[in-house]
Amino acid sequence: MQPAVKVPFTDLAAMAREVWPAIESEFIEALLAGRYIGGAPVAAFERRWAEYCGTGHAVGVANGTDALQLTLQALGVGDGDEVIVPANTFIATAAAVVRAGATPVFTDVDPDTLLLTPDLLTRAVTARTRAVMVVHLYGNMPDMHGLAAAARQAGIWLIEDAAQAHGAEWSDRRAGAFGDAGAVVTDDPELAARIRALANHGRDQGSAHYQHRHVGTNSRLDTLQAIALTGKLDRHDQWTDTRIALADRYRKKLAGSPAVRLIDIAPEARHVHHLMVIRVPHRDRIQATLAAHGIRTGVHYPVPCHQQPPLRRYATQSLPVCEQAADQLLSLPLFPHMTRGQLDQVCEVLDHALSQGTLR
Predict the structure, then answer these.
(1) Which domains, and CATH codes, for the chain?
(2) Are strands 329-332 and 276-279 parallel, antiparallel or unpaired?
(3) Which value, to the nearest 10 degrees, does the dihedral of the CA atoms of residues 136, 198, 28, 336 take?
(4) Average pLDDT per run of 10 along the chain, which is 360 residues long?
(5) Of 111, 90, 94, whose CA–CA distance to 320 is shortest?
C-alpha cells in the first residue's frame, strides 16, 4: 500500500486554481462560442510573450518539440545536415532534429552545471554542422556569450531549447533572446513568418484557406490554452521569485552535506529553478526512502539521449559526464505553492536517508 503523499513533486492544480478567477469569463466565452484556434487571445499571448522574452516576435505552436522542429525546417536545416545536441536533455530535443531530417551529434556537458560549454561545442563542429541546440536545463542557462561567439565563429545557427527556462537570464538577457526557438520567439520577422506558415499547414499569413506554399503541419496554439497561458503569465514573475527563494533555502540546507552535489550556477545566470536537481549516490535507494515517507521526487533524466534505443545509431563516442550523472540525478519537490515546512521535511528525510542504512 502506497503511503499518503505528504509532499507532492509539484502541484499544477494549485496554480490552476489561482489563475481560474482571472480567466474564467474569457475561457468559458471562447469555449461556448466554439472558438478553439487562433483569434485575439492567441495574438495577445504572442505579443506579451515576445515582450517578456525581449524579442520582436513570438509564434504560438502546439508544443516545444514542434517549436524546435519548425525552427530547424524554417532555417533550411534537414537531410545531410548535422545539429549539435547535448546528450543530457529530454529526448524531445534530439527527436526534433531527427524529425526535421537532420543528424544529431551528441556532446558531453560540463560536470558542474551539466550544460553545454563553448569548448565542447567547438570540438563537435564538422563541415556538415548547420546548427547547435543549446539547452537551458532545469531552469539554468549556460555561457551564452561564449556559445554565441563559438556558433558565429563556426558559421552555424544557435537555437535555444528554453522549455525549462521561462524567465531565466544570462547577463540580464532572457532565455530565447539569444537564438531562435522557444514558443517560438525570434527577432527575425521573416523567420517568424516561415515558422507560422509551416505550423499552419504551409499557408502564408493572409493567403486563401486552400493556398499552401509549403508542405507544413498542424501545430497551432489553441485559443483556450492561450487564455490560460496569459493568465499564468500575469503570475509568472511572482511564481518564479517564490521558486528561487525555495531553491535558495534548499541550497543552504543541503550545502553542508558531503553526499549531496548541487548544480553550479554561474554569476551571470539567473536560474529560475524549473527543477531542483541534486546529485546523490545510490539514487534509487534514496528515492525509495523518500517515497516511503510520502515524499514524491523525479529523475531528469535517467537515460542520456545517446543511449536511448532509437538514437543509439547517432552515438559515436562515450560521454562520461552524462553517463555518470544519469545514475545520480534526483529532482526534489519544488513548486510555487510549496511551504517551508514541506521543504524542511524533504531535507530532514533526505539527510536521514543519506546517513543511515539506506546507503549500505
Answers:
(1) 14-228 (3.40.640.10), 235-359 (3.90.1150.10)
(2) antiparallel
(3) 0
(4) 85 96 97 93 94 93 92 96 98 96 98 98 98 97 98 97 95 85 79 88 78 80 93 96 98 95 97 98 96 97 97 96 98 98 97 73
(5) 111
